[in-house]
Specification:
two-stranded antiparallel sheet; 15 helices; 9 strands; 13% strand; elongated; binds adenosine-5'-triphosphate; binds magnesium ion
């Protein structure tokens, strides 16, 4: 059943109950979005939980998730709707001979011949949904302009059919990795949430949630090292996703400590550029203790 949050704490508890640990502003902005009916623009580096927030909101609020994954060249036909040409053609062929153009046209431009794409599905949904427009920065500005009507009025216009207004108000999340600046017009229509790498204790809680079997001391050491690695000037600093992967890897390998050896063995789980690997091995790996047994070996 669809839930309706009554307070910021409600949202925070709800998100936690489905395995998402929100920061303060995440709970606040999500609450406001649900209450004000405004879309949220979520920006931040890769792997900090932008997409996951939409999933978590959908399961906590009991609303289906409709997802539009953006990419370069995405157009209305793939995002909004498309006419089902084949079906239209069949209909024209089946039409009695001698039928006038007007009759044919009235026939083939009906809802029955529309192929719904994600944005249209969200508008047409009978039940309230969560609409995730993921990685909006990958599209071009024309696509953004097309979204404006949808985001401010929750409606879309189809030339042959007229205006479609949403039956229920979806909760809309747009995510962006900031690869390009979004237009002011788009930002004005949204609430803004900046998700950054989390504070140490927050990340520790997330890592523990995903790998409850990992030893506490190792988990803490892991997030401390991750924080150190993020301090370096890397091409791609490790994200929460990498912290979780690393924790899983250490658990699987049965590591009982993160010493220099274990670190060098497993650091490719958190660092994924050739040059970054060198920097990290030198600046962080060197600081970790060398295991006594292997210390004496050549
Ligand atoms: N606050 C959180 N609570 C629980 N898990 C989290 C949290 N933040 C991130 N995660 C976990 O981190 C991983 C990465 O999150 P997600 O895929 O949402 O990142 P993203 O910001 O969408 O990244 P990208 O920009 O690369 O798409 C997921 O496995 C998710 O479960
Ligand atoms: Mg994502």
């Amino acid at each position: 059943m669809a839930a309706s949050p009554q307070s910021i704490d409600d949202v925070a508890a709800g998100l936690r109950s489905v395995g998402y640990l929100p920061g303060e502003s995440t709970a606040l902005v999500s609450f406001l979005a649900a209450k004000l009916g405004k879309p949220i623009l979520v920006e931040g580096p890769a792997g900090v939980g932008k997409t996951e927030l939409a999933r978590a909101l959908s399961s906590y609020l009991g609303r289906p998730l409709i997802r539009l994954q953006c990419y370069e060249g995405l157009d209305e036909a793939k995002a909004l709707y498309e006419w089902n040409y084949r079906k239209q053609l069949l209909r024209i062929q089946a039409e009695a001979e001698g039928a006038g153009w007007q009759e044919v046209q009235d026939d083939i431009f009906g809802e029955e011949f529309l192929l719904e794409r994600p944005l249209m599905s969200a508008i047409a949904a009978e039940e309230p949904v969560v609409l995730l427009i993921d990685e909006i920065d990958k599209t071009d500005q024309e696509f953004e302009a097309m979204l404006l009507e949808l985001l401010s009025d929750f409606q879309i216009s189809i030339p042959e059919l007229g205006r479609f207004a949403a039956r229920t108000r979806p909760i809309v999340l747009l995510t962006s990795n900031n690869t390009r600046e979004l237009t002011e017009a788009l930002k004005r229509r949204c609430l803004y949430l900046w998700l950054d790498y989390p504070q140490l204790e927050h990340e520790l809680a997330i890592v523990k949630l995903h790998t409850p079997d990992l030893d506490d001391a190792i988990a803490r050491k892991l997030v401390e090292i991750i924080a150190m690695v993020r301090e370096l000037d890397l091409k791609k600093p490790p994200s929460i996703a990498e912290s979780i992967d690393w924790a899983r890897a250490l658990l699987l390998l049965g590591a009982d400590d993160i010493d220099n050896e274990v670190f060098v063995q497993t650091m490719s789980v958190i660092v994924k550029h050739r040059t970054d690997l060198d920097v990290v091995a030198e600046r962080v790996g060197m600081k970790l203790p060398v295991r006594a047994a292997s210390a004496g070996q050549p």
